[in-house]
Design a protein that fits this description.
alpha/beta, five-stranded parallel sheet, 22 helices, 12% strand
Length: 593
C-alpha cells in the first residue's frame, strides 16, 4: 500500500469515527503539498466538509488530529483553509530511501507483467533521407516504447517502410533520366541522400513541365496530370505492380542504397526495431481485402473501376481504396499492414502509431475501416499524434530540397557541444576518444531532450544551440547534475551504505525525498498517456531540486558521519533515477563533464 492509499484509508476511518459518515477511498483527494507550505501530502478537505457537517477548516483540524494520532508516518499537520497539509516523519523518509537504494530498477513494474503493446515509429519513405521531423518521430516512438516496458508491458518496436508507390517511382524516373548511372560510391555520399537528390530533381523538372504547359494555355490541373515526367512515374508504378523484372531490379538497387543510409542514421540516433514491415509486402494483402470487401458489400466499386469505403455513418467521408487503374493507395497498404501485424502477434492489446498530426484524419479513417471489416481490435489502435517541428529559419519542404537533414542536424549539435565544452576548459586528462564520446553524448542529449520535453501534441520551435546549454531546461543540464553527483561519490572513499538513517530531514532534503518518491507514478503516467514529456520535465525538476539541496546544505562536511552518509544516499538515489529516467528517453549519461 502506498502512503497515499494509506492516508485515504485512514481518512475514511476518520470520517466514520469523527462524523459517523461513510465515504469511499476514491473520494479522498490527495496531492503533493505546494512548496511554500510545510509538508509533503495535502488532503483536499472541501469535499469532506459536507459529510462532516462542519466548515472545511474545522473538518481539517479534526481530521489532522486523528491522522497524527493514528498514523505513525505523520509527524505533524497544518491547516490552510480547506487543505490539510501532512508532514511525514524522518523515519518514514529514511526507510523509503533505503528501499529505493536496495532496488535495481526502482520505479519499474515487473517485466512483461502487462499486455503486449506494439509501437510503430519512423516509417520513412525510401525516396529521401530522414529529416528533423523524423528525429522527433523516432525519439518519441522509442522513448514511449521504453517507458511502456518500464511500466511492465511487453513491447514490440516496429516500423513500416514505405518502399513502394508513386513517390518511389519519382526518384527512379529522375535517376534514369538524369543519373548517368551514379551510385553512392561514385558520388561519395550516403545512399539515402543520393536517392533524395533525384526526388528533388524530379520535382524541379515536374514544375518546369507544368509551367510550360500552363504557358501554352493548358489548365493547371490538366497540366499537372499530363506532364510527361509524371506520366512516366505512373507508368513505372504500373510496371512495378506488374512485377516487371527490369523495373524491380532498379527498385531493389535504389532501395538498397537507402536502407544502408538509414542503418547508419538509426545507429547514431540510438533507436532500434524488433520487426520491420515493408509496404511492398503488405499492399497486395490490402488490395485483396478491398476486393473482398466489394464482394461482401462492405465497399463499393464505381463505374470507372475504383473502389471506395463509405464512412459517412462514422461521421467521416468516402475513402478511395483502389484507383481506377487498380493500383493501391496508402490506406490500402495500412489496412494490409494492420492485418498482418495482428496475424504475427495475436496477443497485441494495443497498437500505437507514432505519426504526425497532419495524418489525424487518415487514422480516423483507417480505424473506422478496420471496424467496418469486423475487427474489434480496431478499438485498441491509437494514433500517437505529434506536432510539427520548425527551426528559427521556418518550415521545411522535402520536395524543394529545403528539409533539415537528420544526419546534418545531429552532426551540428555534436560539433556545437564540442565548441561549448572546450570553451569551459574542463577536459584535462581526457583522451581524444573520451572527449569525442562526451561531445556525442552532450550533443545528442541536447537534441533528444529538447524534442521530448514538449508535449507531443504541440508544435515546437527547435533551437540547436539553446538545446545544449549547460544551464536551463536542457538535457546537458541534467547530465551535468548527474556528473556532479558522480564526482561527489568518487570523493567519498567509503561505500555509501543503503541502510535506514535516523537523521531528521531538512526542507531541501524533504523536497528531494518527495521528488524521488514520485518517480514510479511518473513512469506510470508517462506510459498511460504515451507522453515522454511528463518524464522529461520530472527529471529536470528532480535535478533542480538537487541543485537547491547542494547549494544550501553541506554533504561531505555535514558534521557527523551519519549525516554525511544520509546525504550521500540522497545524492546516490537522485543520480540513479536521473540515469534511469534519461535512459528511458534514449539519452546516455556521462560519468564526467
Amino acid at each position: 500500500m502506498t502512503i497515499e492509499q494509506n492516508i485515504a484509508h485512514k481518512t475514511v476511518m476518520a470520517v466514520k469515527h469523527l462524523f459517523d459518515a461513510d465515504i469511499s477511498p476514491d473520494s479522498v483527494q490527495i496531492q503533493p503539498t505546494r512548496k511554500e507550505f510545510e509538508g509533503e501530502f495535502t488532503v483536499v478537505v472541501f469535499p469532506l466538509a459536507k459529510a462532516a457537517r462542519k466548515s472545511p477548516e474545522q473538518t481539517a483540524e479534526m481530521l489532522g488530529a486523528y491522522l497524527s494520532e493514528n498514523m505513525p508516518e505523520v509527524q505533524s499537520f497544518q491547516v490552510v483553509k480547506g487543505f490539510l497539509n501532512l508532514k511525514l516523519t524522518g523515519v518514514f523518509w529514511s526507510s523509503h530511501l533505503a528501499e529505493v537504494l536496495s532496488k535495481g530498477n526502482y520505479g519499474f513494474s515487473p517485466a512483461k507483467s502487462k499486455g503486449l503493446v506494439m509501437v510503430e515509429y519512423s516509417s520513412p519513405n525510401t525516396n529521401k533521407p530522414l529529416h528533423l521531423g523524423h528525429l522527433r518521430n523516432n525519439f518519441l516512438g522509442y522513448s514511449v516504447a521504453e517507458i511502456l516496458k518500464a511500466n511492465g508491458h511487453d513491447v514490440k518496436k516496429v516500423q513500416v517502410i514505405n518502399d513502394r508507390g508513386i513517390h518511389i517511382c519519382k526518384s527512379m524516373v529522375a535517376w534514369m533520366k538524369f543519373g548517368n548511372r551514379e551510385t553512392p560510391e561514385s558520388a561519395g555520399i550516403k545512399g539515402d541522400h543520393l536517392v533524395g537528390k533525384y526526388y528533388v530533381a524530379f520535382e524541379k523538372e515536374y514544375k518546369k513541365q507544368i509551367a510550360a504547359l500552363v504557358a501554352a494555355s493548358t489548365d493547371q490541373k490538366v497540366a499537372e496530370d499530363e506532364a510527361t515526367i509524371m506520366q512516366e512515374a505512373r507508368s513505372v508504378l504500373l510496371k512495378w505492380e506488374a512485377e516487371d523484372p527490369e523495373t524491380y531490379a532498379l527498385w531493389e538497387m535504389m532501395n538498397g542504397w537507402v536502407y544502408s543510409g538509414f542503418e547508419s542514421t538509426y545507429k547514431r540516433m540510438g533507436v532500434d526495431f524488433d520487426k520491420l514491415y515493408y509496404e511492398s509486402n503488405t499492399w497486395m494483402l490490402g488490395r485483396e481485402v478491398a476486393l473482398d470487401g466489394v464482394k461482401s458489400g462492405v465497399f463499393t466499386k464505381r463505374d470507372d473501376g475504383s473502389v471506395w469505403a463509405n464512412l459517412r455513418d462514422d461521421g467521416l467521408d468516402e475513402k478511395l481504396l483502389l484507383r481506377k487503374d487498380g493500383t493501391a493507395v496508402y490506406m490500402t497498404q495500412d489496412i494490409g499492414t494492420a492485418l498482418l501485424r495482428y496475424k504475427d502477434f495475436p496477443a497485441i492489446t494495443k497498437m500505437v502509431y507514432t505519426v504526425g498530426n497532419e495524418q489525424e484524419y487518415h487514422f480516423k479513417v483507417l480505424f473506422a475501416i478496420l471496424r467496418k471489416l469486423g475487427h474489434e481490435w480496431a478499438d485498441h489502435c491509437h494514433h500517437l499524434s505529434y506536432g510539427m517541428v520548425e527551426l528559427p529559419e521556418g518550415k521545411m519542404k522535402s520536395r524543394e530540397g529545403t528539409v533539415v537533414d537528420a544526419d546534418d542536424l545531429m552532426q551540428d549539435v555534436v560539433d556545437t557541444a564540442r565548441e561549448l565544452t572546450e570553451q569551459l576548459g574542463k577536459l584535462e586528462g581526457m583522451s581524444e576518444e573520451d572527449r569525442a564520446s562526451l561531445f556525442e553524448n552532450i550533443g545528442m542529449a541536447g537534441l533528444k531532450y529538447f524534442l521530448l520535453k514538449v508535449d507531443p501534441k504541440k508544435n515546437m520551435l527547435f533551437n540547436p544551440r539553446e538545446s545544449i546549454e549547460l544551464q536551463g531546461h536542457t538535457g546537458p543540464f541534467i547530465q551535468y547534475a548527474y556528473a556532479r553527483i558522480q564526482s561527489i561519490l568518487r570523493k567519498h572513499a567509503a561505500e555509501v551504505p543503503a541502510k535506514q538513517q535516523t537523521a531528521e530531514p531538512e526542507i531541501y532534503e524533504r523536497h528531494l525525498h518527495m521528488r524521488i518518491y514520485q518517480y514510479p507514478s511518473v513512469i506510470h503516467e508517462s506510459a498511460v498517456t504515451y507522453n515522454p514529456a511528463t518524464l522529461a520535465n520530472y527529471l529536470y525538476d528532480l535535478v533542480r531540486d538537487f541543485s537547491s539541496f547542494y547549494q544550501n546544505v553541506s554533504i561531505l562536511q555535514a558534521g557527523s558521519q551519519e549525516l554525511v552518509n544520509y546525504r550521500l544516499q540522497l545524492a546516490l538515489a537522485v543520480s540513479r533515477i536521473a540515469k534511469s529516467g534519461m535512459n528511458l528517453l534514449g539519452i546516455n549519461m556521462p560519468e564526467r563533464m
